[in-house]
Design a protein that fits this description.
Distance between the termini: 15 Å
CATH architecture of the largest domain: 2-Layer Sandwich
CATH class of the largest domain: Alpha Beta
Number of domains: 3
CATH topology of the largest domain: BirA Bifunctional Protein, domain 2
Largest sheet: 9 strands, mixed
Number of strands: 32
Number of helices: 17
Helix content: 25-40%
CATH superfamily of the largest domain: Bira Bifunctional Protein, Domain 2
Shape: globular
Mean pLDDT: 90
Structural class: alpha+beta
Strand content: 25-35%
RNA sequence: CGGGGUAUAGCGCAGUCUGGCUAGCGCAUUUGGUUUGGGACCAAAGGGUCGCAGGUUCGAAUCCUGCUACCCCGACCA
């Protein structure tokens, strides 16, 4: 752990507390980070850290370093500014959208601000490692990243510039990667426990633009989270909505004859099912998407389900699906609002059917003619040569595939992720080593990220009261806050100064409120800063040779004999650390 | 990128509809004094190109046009 400034006087501390909530802050973490004097916004999604905010970040980083070193990581530092050609090698210069900030240097050379460092680490490693004897290896860094987010929000929860710990491992085999992936997972569990994130879930996730197959997200459970998670009641099943599935049961009935019905002006599932006196689950829904090349994809799902665009995008291997416009839909012979998979130009459209349609009977579908639908559509009979898969979005209450219990919905903030990347980058960027037979091989990669600022914000989301954050001792800006009520009183002033010096001597981190503010004012500031342990020096107690001790968030106070304060506070601190070991 | 909103002192806001003398209020700040266990009191003081650029007018924070920044919802996305 790096050396720290152990002590600080409040009278000298830069970063004022603010009484009122900032107008534009909505989440508790955003409000308290601003009000407590931890961070200040410079531009949308771009923040400066004030001293106590920086101390928290430094402590979180120290915990991450320890755990990365424990799983044999080697710390490096790679640049924020990278040449575009490195990203051209991997193909991401073209495939990643506008969130990658591109610019030219003075010579007109294309450059980028790195949003992640797979390319940089492969560039580094391919010239340093050439033998199987050097593998496996893991490199990590704690570095600034930039993502040109369309919409920054929620204080530190979604920002454009941020600090991230990212780690990359290289292996000679998939099994070696899988073994290491497990160790990384365990390291992450330890990290989030140690920083005091009490409610973190590791869940199955969608690999998105990173490529690769197996991946997990570490979610801080919070009502202000941006991601939707489905969990079983016992939390044995946990999955992001993007990949979650349920044990859906569908029932086949004997097919009835196809029947064309007049449904004037009824376009939506609700309108059609109500008009025909049926339920939404008796209908089939058609949703049209287009890929980047303007190719039409016809997704068909039962009327009571929603298409899961992540599942669909993964299935058709196209990351950038968009809703198709009416003109494109008509160009294949379909009628928007009354679309049917039958009687359309099969050469111009790819049809993907959800199991809910394939395994149900006698559904109402469009007739590709304005104001007409068909009743009694049956997949097996009425359509041929289409792809059937799961593209349904889980709904709260759907049955868990593992436990058979109803799934419940949670919100989460993604604070970390781990991926089994495979050879996507090492292969594209020609990273090779020689195996024991002298044969050239491509290393298998894993990557592992943690958002440091987001972690700080998430801890507040999970640990605060109406007055401010309640920091775990492991990342609190100081371990102890010392408050002097009326330090102009000679006895109070003397005892406070002596205590301050003695605490420093004992190696305890203390923030000393020496300002002589009114008690209430001082206590409110202390609560807003959220240091977990508080000592108060007052005239009344000093007269009795006593000091008051209180834990942040607790109701009760203790009175400690003055000559035992140092011993007692040290033991309380040790006890607090044990809670997060 | 679509929808909605905001921009006036360090922070939070009023004033704008209905144009008018010197642009206010609370908090914070400075000075002096009194206070000191859950956001004290008295007295005095400093602090503004009213987001930017044009226009209308005798006169614009206020009306008109354009722009910019920021926030919220959505789209997109590690």
């Amino acid at each position: 752990m790096q050396e720290f400034v152990f002590i600080m006087r409040m009278s000298q501390l830069v970063g004022r507390r603010i009484k009122e909530d900032p107008r534009d802050a909505v989440t508790p973490s955003h409000k308290f980070l601003i009000r407590g004097g931890y961070v200040r916004q410079v531009s949308a999604g771009i923040f400066s850290l004030l001293p106590i905010g920086k101390r928290i970040i430094t402590k979180i980083e120290a915990i991450i370093r320890e755990e990365m070193d424990r799983i044999d990581g080697q710390e490096v530092l790679m640049p924020v500014v990278l040449p575009a050609e490195l990203w051209e090698e991997s193909g991401r210069y073209a495939s990643v959208g506008p969130e990658l900030l591109r610019f030219k240097d003075r010579n007109g050379k294309d450059m980028i601000l790195a949003m992640t460092h797979e390319e940089a680490v492969v560039h580094l490693l391919r010239s340093e490692v050439s033998s199987y004897k050097q593998l496996p290896v893991m490199l990590y860094q704690i570095q600034t990243k930039y993502r040109d987010e369309a919409r920054a929000r929620g204080g530190l929860i979604r920002v454009r510039e941020f600090t991230m710990k990212d780690a990359y491992s290289f292996h000679t085999s998939q099994s070696c990667l899988e073994e290491y992936y497990q160790r990384a997972h365990e390291a992450y569990v330890r990290i989030f426990r140690r920083v005091g994130m009490v409610n973190t879930l590791s869940i199955e996730s969608n690999s998105g633009m990173m490529g690769g197959k197996v991946s997990h997200e570490f979610m801080a459970v919070s009502e202000h989270g941006e991601d939707t998670i489905f969990v079983s009641p016992d939390y044995s099943y946990r999955a992001n909505r993007e990949v979650a599935y349920a044990d859906w049961k569908f029932e086949k009935q004997s097919p009835l004859e196809l029947e064309k019905v007049h449904t004037p002006g009824r376009e939506s599932i609700e309108e059609v099912s109500e008009f025909l006196g049926l339920k939404p689950e008796n209908t089939g829904k058609a949703v049209f998407y287009k890929d980047q090349d303007n190719n039409l994809i016809f997704a068909m799902i039962r009327g009571d389900f929603e298409v899961n665009e992540s599942k669909l995008a993964n299935f058709v291997k196209c990351p950038g699906l968009e809703y198709a416009d009416d003109e494109l839909i008509r160009s294949v012979g379909a009628e928007p609002g009354f679309a049917s998979p039958m009687s359309i130009d099969r050469n111009k459209v790819r049809i993907v059917v959800d199991r809910s349609v394939a395994e149900s009977s006698n559904l109402v579908v469009g007739a590709n003619e304005k104001d007409y639908h068909y009743k009694n559509f049956n997949f097996d009979r009425d359509i041929k040569d289409v792809e059937v898969t799961d593209i349904a979005t889980v709904r709260e209450g759907d049955i868990c595939p593992l436990t058979g219990q109803p799934l419940k919905l949670e919100r989460g903030i993604e604070v970390g992720n781990i991926f089994q990347l495979g050879t996507k980058y090492s292969e594209a960027m020609n990273c090779r080593y020689l195996d024991e037979n002298g044969k050239s091989q491509i290393p298998v990669m894993g990557c592992y990220g943690i958002g440091v600022g987001r972690t700080m914000a998430s801890v507040i989301e999970q640990s605060h009261d109406e007055w401010g954050p309640i920091w775990p001792i492991t990342i609190a800006p100081y371990q102890v806050q010392l408050c002097a009520i009326n330090p102009k009183n000679a006895a109070v002033g003397d005892v406070s100064e002596q205590l301050y010096a003695a605490i420093k001597q004992a190696g305890v981190e203390v923030l000393y409120d020496d300002r002589g503010e009114k008690a209430g004012f001082m206590f409110n500031d202390a609560d807003l800063i959220g240091i977990p342990l508080r000592l108060v020096v007052s005239a009344k107690n000093v007269e009795n040779g006593q000091i008051e001790f209180k834990r942040r968030g607790a109701k009760d106070v203790e009175l400690w004999p003055l000559d035992q304060v140092i011993d007692k506070i040290k033991s309380v601190i040790a006890e607090e650390y044990k809670k997060f070991a």
